[in-house]
Amino acid sequence: MTAESRLPGGRYDTVWASPGRVNLIGEHTDYNDGFVLPFALPHSTVVAARRRAEPGWSVTSEQTGETVTFHEEKVEGWAAYVAGIVWVLREAGHEVPPADLWVASDVPFGAGLSSSAAIECAAMAALVELAGADLPMQLRPRLAQRAENEYVGAPTGVMDQAASTLCRAGHALFLDCRSLATEQVPFDLAEAGLAILVVDSKAPHAHVTGEYAARRRSCEDAAKLLGVTALRDVDVAGLDGALAQLDDEVMRRRVRHVVTEDQRVLDTVAALRSGSLRAVGSLMTASHESMRDDYEITVPQVDTAVRVALEHGAYGARMTGGGFGGCVLALVEEDDCGSVAAAVREAFAANGFAPPDTFVVTPAEGTRRVSLSR
């Protein structure tokens, strides 16, 4: 069932959908003002909205059946992602009318596919329309990020919200996280006979936990010691000199990952522009090795998925998302998806891991208005 079909019957004033995303390459570079290259998934979160006569807002989850009603008070749990959008829009000076909202989703939760950004961006689109606000799409990711950072309490960068809002079908989104400048880079896998196989490791993660925040703090501290605004300002040519200024070995590893990962994004964009899609594979694998060894955010399940995919013919493979679980992307020949997926499932069983989910994805559209007949 699609997310749209899961909405309850009834009349709505507006319905919007925002997708989950995978990040082709560029992990933990976004909050360092760096570069990322995500694309949107076919999986979406849908938010339907209707004005209400009573003050306040309510939000109902199709998945849990729970309804949360709120006014000015702080909201916790899943509904905080919607309440945070109400809060940030009002903070930005927009009058958000009282409304009832319904949420349905087919974005896998807790898999590193940005289910939180999907609900934030769809809720923002619905509420902006109800409010009649003039808020261009290009400006929405920063507001949604602020809601997640300051209201929900997750110290994420802007990539997830930008990808959910701005991605276009058949393209990867080259995003400069400092300026928010974007380029839609063609990413036609089918034309090249390729596919992206996603392996959901079922190893859960949570960005609100301390490990993610600790790595962000380490990067910010390193930037101060190096006298730069953010690690984006250290390039590969100056990396050795920068590392020599840092006494802490852990901090050096964190910096090395971010600086080399930024360069891998630039190299991947160059490969896609030239049509060299298979060349992206080695960059993906190098990215995973850097996340494993320097940023130390992988777990045995994702390392196993990467290793097995490469052993069975993948051009490259890497974990995607914040880490400590989540999903792996493997760039494979289209005809090899089934055999690679089967090999990963067999390896997980042999290691006593929970069975993974595997599915093939193509670059999809970002935030969009949905027309439903009710």
From TrEMBL:
<feature type="active site" description="Proton acceptor">
    <location>
        <position position="160"/>
    </location>
</feature>
<feature type="domain" description="GHMP kinase C-terminal">
    <location>
        <begin position="269"/>
        <end position="349"/>
    </location>
</feature>
<keyword id="KW-0808">Transferase</keyword>
<feature type="domain" description="Galactokinase N-terminal">
    <location>
        <begin position="14"/>
        <end position="51"/>
    </location>
</feature>
<keyword id="KW-0963">Cytoplasm</keyword>
<feature type="binding site">
    <location>
        <begin position="27"/>
        <end position="30"/>
    </location>
    <ligand>
        <name>substrate</name>
    </ligand>
</feature>
<comment type="pathway">
    <text>Carbohydrate metabolism; galactose metabolism.</text>
</comment>
<feature type="binding site">
    <location>
        <position position="148"/>
    </location>
    <ligand>
        <name>Mg(2+)</name>
    </ligand>
</feature>
<keyword id="KW-0418">Kinase</keyword>
<dbReference type="Pfam" id="PF10509">
    <property type="entry name" value="GalKase_gal_bdg"/>
</dbReference>
<dbReference type="GO" id="GO:0005524">
    <property type="term" value="F:ATP binding"/>
</dbReference>
<dbReference type="InterPro" id="IPR019539">
    <property type="entry name" value="GalKase_N"/>
</dbReference>
<dbReference type="GO" id="GO:0004335">
    <property type="term" value="F:galactokinase activity"/>
</dbReference>
<dbReference type="InterPro" id="IPR036554">
    <property type="entry name" value="GHMP_kinase_C_sf"/>
</dbReference>
<feature type="binding site">
    <location>
        <position position="116"/>
    </location>
    <ligand>
        <name>Mg(2+)</name>
    </ligand>
</feature>
<keyword id="KW-0479">Metal-binding</keyword>
<dbReference type="Pfam" id="PF00288">
    <property type="entry name" value="GHMP_kinases_N"/>
</dbReference>
<dbReference type="InterPro" id="IPR022963">
    <property type="entry name" value="Galactokinase_bac"/>
</dbReference>
<dbReference type="InterPro" id="IPR019741">
    <property type="entry name" value="Galactokinase_CS"/>
</dbReference>
<keyword id="KW-0547">Nucleotide-binding</keyword>
<dbReference type="InterPro" id="IPR013750">
    <property type="entry name" value="GHMP_kinase_C_dom"/>
</dbReference>
<dbReference type="InterPro" id="IPR006204">
    <property type="entry name" value="GHMP_kinase_N_dom"/>
</dbReference>
<dbReference type="InterPro" id="IPR020568">
    <property type="entry name" value="Ribosomal_Su5_D2-typ_SF"/>
</dbReference>
<comment type="similarity">
    <text>Belongs to the GHMP kinase family. GalK subfamily.</text>
</comment>
<dbReference type="InterPro" id="IPR000705">
    <property type="entry name" value="Galactokinase"/>
</dbReference>
<feature type="domain" description="GHMP kinase N-terminal">
    <location>
        <begin position="81"/>
        <end position="166"/>
    </location>
</feature>
<dbReference type="InterPro" id="IPR006203">
    <property type="entry name" value="GHMP_knse_ATP-bd_CS"/>
</dbReference>
<dbReference type="Pfam" id="PF08544">
    <property type="entry name" value="GHMP_kinases_C"/>
</dbReference>
<comment type="function">
    <text>Catalyzes the transfer of the gamma-phosphate of ATP to D-galactose to form alpha-D-galactose-1-phosphate (Gal-1-P).</text>
</comment>
<dbReference type="InterPro" id="IPR014721">
    <property type="entry name" value="Ribsml_uS5_D2-typ_fold_subgr"/>
</dbReference>
<keyword id="KW-0067">ATP-binding</keyword>
<keyword id="KW-0119">Carbohydrate metabolism</keyword>
<feature type="binding site">
    <location>
        <position position="61"/>
    </location>
    <ligand>
        <name>ATP</name>
    </ligand>
</feature>
<dbReference type="GO" id="GO:0005829">
    <property type="term" value="C:cytosol"/>
</dbReference>
<dbReference type="InterPro" id="IPR006206">
    <property type="entry name" value="Mevalonate/galactokinase"/>
</dbReference>
<dbReference type="GO" id="GO:0006012">
    <property type="term" value="P:galactose metabolic process"/>
</dbReference>
<keyword id="KW-0460">Magnesium</keyword>
<feature type="binding site">
    <location>
        <begin position="110"/>
        <end position="116"/>
    </location>
    <ligand>
        <name>ATP</name>
    </ligand>
</feature>
<dbReference type="GO" id="GO:0000287">
    <property type="term" value="F:magnesium ion binding"/>
</dbReference>
<keyword id="KW-0299">Galactose metabolism</keyword>
<feature type="site" description="Transition state stabilizer">
    <location>
        <position position="21"/>
    </location>
</feature>
<feature type="binding site">
    <location>
        <position position="212"/>
    </location>
    <ligand>
        <name>substrate</name>
    </ligand>
</feature>
